[in-house]
Write a structure and sequence with these properties.
Helix content of chain C: 40-55%
Chains: A alpha+beta, B alpha/beta, C alpha/beta
Strand content of chain A: 25-35%
CATH topology of chain A: Heat Shock Protein 90
Largest interface: B-C, 29 and 35 residues
Number of strands of chain A: 5
Strand order of the largest sheet of chain C: 1-2-3-4-5-6
Strand order of the largest sheet of chain A: 1-2-3-5-4
Shape of chain C: globular
CATH class of chain A: Alpha Beta
CATH superfamily of chain A: Histidine kinase-like ATPase, C-terminal domain
CATH superfamily of chain C: STAS domain
Structural class of chain C: alpha/beta
Distance between the termini of chain C: 39 Å
Order of helices and strands of chain A: EHHEEHHEE
Radius of gyration of chain A: 14 Å
Number of helices of chain A: 4
CATH class of chain C: Alpha Beta
Number of strands of chain C: 6
CATH topology of chain C: Transcription Regulator spoIIAA
CATH architecture of chain C: 2-Layer Sandwich
Number of domains of chain C: 1
Shape of chain A: globular
Oligomer: heterotrimer
Largest sheet of chain C: 6 strands, mixed
Chain lengths: 134, 275, 140
C-alpha cells in the first residue's frame, strides 16, 4: 500500500461509522466519482459490520493506492474471529448465519473492483478490497 | 553527442549573423512541406521567433534542451505544437517545421565548419523536434478525450416531455460507459424535476447486448427505489428477439411500441390519479 | 446516543434522517416510531433520507422493518428522497426494499399517502391498486 494509510480499531457500532467517514474522505481525496464513492463506502460499511458482528471486532486499515495508471483506494478488514468455514456458502446471496440479510459479503464484492479474502477456521478472516478511479 | 559550450556559442553567432538568409531558407522549406496551408507571412513570423529562441538557448550555452537558457525555446516549441495540433496538421508536418532548421543551417555553414560541430548541432535540433512531437501527441490526446466527453454529453439528452414526465431518446450504439452515464443522468433529472415518470426510448438503438440490457434494467430498478416509474419504448423487433434469446427478464417493466404510446400510457395513469 | 427527531404534521409523522446513523440509533428510531404511531394515531409515516449519502443493508433492513411495523399499526410508510447514487448502489448490492413505498420528495410522498387513504375510504376502488406509487422489486 502506498500513500498514507490509516487504521481504525473496530469494537463498537460507533467505529463502523468512523470507518465509513474515513473511507468517504479517502474516496473524495482520490477523486472517485460520486457513484463510486457511494459504492465503496457502502461496501466498507457492510464489511466493517461483518468484522464487528461475525469477527467479534478487529481492525480496518484504509489508504490510497496508485498503480501508475490509476489511483484508487484499498481497505483491509481483519479480525481474529471464528473464520468462515464455507466460503462458497458465505458468498451466496441471502445466506446468513447472523440474522442479517446475507448480502454483506456477496453484495460488497459486487461494489468494488478487487476483492481478496483469506480465512481460516478458528484463526480469523482478512478481506482486502480495492476500488479504482475510472 | 551533446554540444560543447564552445560549439553552442559558435552556432549562436552563426544564427545571428545569417538571420535573414536563414529565416528565408527555413520558411521556404516549411512552406513546401505544409503545401500552402499556412501563409508565408505567418510561417515567416513563426520561424523567425523560433530562430530567436534557438539563438537565445545556444548563446546561453545550452548543451541540451533541458538547459535553463532553453526555457523560452521550449515554450515556443510547445506553443507551436499546440497550434499545429489544433489546426489539424499531422505529426510529421509539425516536426518538419523544426527539423527544416538543419537544412537551412547547412546552407549557411561555411566550408570551414567541422562535421563534428554540425552533428552536435543537429542532435540538438533533433531533440527539439522530439520535444515538439511529444507536445503534439499530448495535445492530440487531450483533444480526443475532450471530444469523447462532449460526444457522451451530446448523445445523452434527458428532456422534459410533460409535467412530471421526462424522456431519454437513446440514439446510436450503447456501450457500457454510455449506458452508465445515461443511467446517472436520468436518475438525477428525476430528482431535479421531481418527475415520477421516465420514458426510455430505444428506437435509435441498433443493437442491445446483455450488458446494456442489464444497465437499462438496473436503471429501472434504481428509479423504482427512488419512487419513479420507467417505461421503455421503441423496442425494435430484432431487439425484442435478442432480449428473449439472451433470456433477459424484463419482468413487470412497462414496454410500449412508440414514444407516443408511452406518453399516452403515462398520461392516462396520472389523469386517473389526479381526478 | 443521538436520536432522530420525529415530527407530527397533521395525520403524518415526518422523520428526516440528517445524521450518519449508528446501528443502535437506527434501531432506536424503529422503536420510537412505533411508540409515536400508537400515541398519535397517525396513519402515515414519511421517512426522508435525502441527507443520507449511503444506505447499507442494515439501514435498508431497518427501513423495511419500520414499514412492516407501521402497516401492522395501520399506518402507511413512504421513504422519500433517495439519492441516485444510493439507488444505483442498492441495486448493485442486491438489496430490494420489498414492501416499501417510495417517492422522489416529501411533497410527492404526502400526495401518495393522501391517495392511498383516499382509495381506502372510497371502498371498492381497487383496480388501480398497483398504480398508486411504486414498490421496489429487483428483477434482474
Amino acid at each position: 500500500m502506498n500513500g498514507e494509510s490509516q487504521r481504525i480499531e473496530v469494537t463498537t457500532d460507533q467505529d463502523v461509522v468512523r470507518v465509513r467517514q474515513l473511507v468517504r474522505t479517502l474516496a473524495v481525496a482520490v477523486k472517485l466519482s460520486l457513484v463510486d464513492q457511494t459504492k465503496v463506502v457502502t461496501a466498507a460499511s457492510e464489511l466493517a459490520r461483518n468484522t464487528l458482528v461475525y469477527g467479534g471486532g478487529g481492525s480496518v486499515e484504509a489508504g490510497p493506492v496508485d498503480n501508475g495508471r490509476r489511483k484508487g483506494i484499498r481497505i483491509t478488514f481483519a479480525d481474529q474471529g471464528p473464520g468462515i468455514a464455507d466460503l462458497d456458502m458465505a458468498f451466496t446471496d441471502g445466506y446468513t448465519t447472523g440474522g442479517g440479510l446475507g448480502l454483506g459479503l456477496s453484495g460488497a464484492r459486487r461494489l468494488v473492483d478487487e476483492f481478496d479474502i483469506a480465512t481460516a477456521v478458528g484463526e480469523g478472516t482478512s478481506i482486502t478490497v480495492t476500488k479504482w478511479c475510472r | 553527442m551533446t554540444l560543447s559550450a564552445d560549439e553552442a556559442a559558435r552556432f549562436a553567432a552563426l544564427l545571428e549573423e545569417h538571420e535573414d538568409t536563414l529565416v528565408a531558407a527555413w520558411t521556404d522549406r516549411v512552406a513546401t512541406s505544409l503545401r500552402g496551408r499556412l501563409s508565408q507571412a505567418e510561417l515567416r513570423r513563426q520561424t523567425s521567433e523560433l530562430r530567436r529562441g534557438f539563438q537565445q538557448a545556444l548563446s546561453g550555452a545550452a548543451q541540451d534542451l533541458s538547459a535553463e537558457s532553453a526555457a523560452e525555446l521550449r515554450a515556443q516549441l510547445s506553443e507551436l505544437s499546440t497550434n499545429r495540433a489544433r489546426q489539424g496538421f499531422s505529426a510529421t508536418e509539425t516536426a518538419v517545421s523544426v527539423i527544416a532548421l538543419k537544412d537551412a543551417v547547412l546552407g549557411i555553414l561555411g566550408d570551414g565548419a567541422s562535421l563534428r560541430d554540425y552533428v552536435a548541432f543537429s542532435s540538438f535540433v533533433d531533440e527539439a523536434a522530439l520535444f515538439t512531437f511529444d507536445s503534439y501527441v499530448r495535445v492530440r490526446e487531450e483533444l480526443i478525450a475532450d471530444q469523447a466527453e462532449q460526444l457522451l454529453e451530446l448523445s445523452t439528452p434527458v428532456v422534459k416531455l410533460w409535467e412530471g414526465v421526462v424522456a431519454v431518446p437513446l440514439v446510436g450504439t450503447l456501450d457500457s460507459a454510455r449506458a452508465q452515464v445515461v443511467m446517472e443522468r436520468l436518475l438525477q433529472t428525476l430528482v431535479d424535476t421531481g418527475s415520477p415518470y421516465a420514458i426510455i426510448d430505444i428506437t435509435g438503438v441498433p443493437a442491445v447486448d446483455t450488458q446494456v440490457a442489464q444497465h437499462i434494467l438496473k436503471t429501472v430498478v434504481a428509479a423504482r427505489l427512488m419512487g419513479a416509474d420507467c417505461i421503455i419504448s421503441g423496442i425494435r423487433p430484432q431487439i425484442a428477439q435478442t432480449i428473449v434469446a439472451l433470456g433477459i427478464e424484463f419482468g413487470d417493466i412497462a414496454t410500449k411500441a412508440s414514444l407516443a404510446d408511452a406518453l399516452r400510457y403515462v398520461l392516462a395513469r396520472t389523469n386517473k390519479k389526479v381526478r | 446516543m443521538e436520536r432522530v427527531p420525529i415530527l407530527k404534521i397533521g395525520d403524518i409523522l415526518l422523520v428526516s434522517i440528517q445524521i450518519d446513523m449508528e446501528d443502535q440509533v437506527a434501531l432506536r428510531l424503529q422503536e420510537d416510531l412505533a411508540d409515536r404511531i400508537v400515541a398519535t394515531g397517525c396513519h402515515g409515516v414519511i421517512i426522508d433520507i435525502s441527507a443520507l449519502d449511503i444506505v447499507d443493508s442494515f439501514v435498508g433492513r431497518t427501513l423495511a422493518t419500520i414499514a412492516s411495523i407501521s402497516k401492522v399499526l395501520d399506518a402507511d410508510t413512504v421513504v422519500v428522497g433517495m439519492r441516485p447514487a444510493v439507488a444505483i448502489t442498492l441495486v448493485e448490492l442486491g438489496l430490494s426494499l420489498p414492501g416499501i413505498r417510495t417517492a422522489l420528495n416529501v411533497e410527492l410522498g404526502m400526495a401518495l399517502l393522501e391517495r392511498e387513504r383516499g382509495d381506502d375510504s372510497d371502498g371498492d376502488e381497487k383496480e388501480d391498486e398497483d398504480d398508486t406509487g411504486t414498490s421496489a422489486v429487483i428483477t434482474s
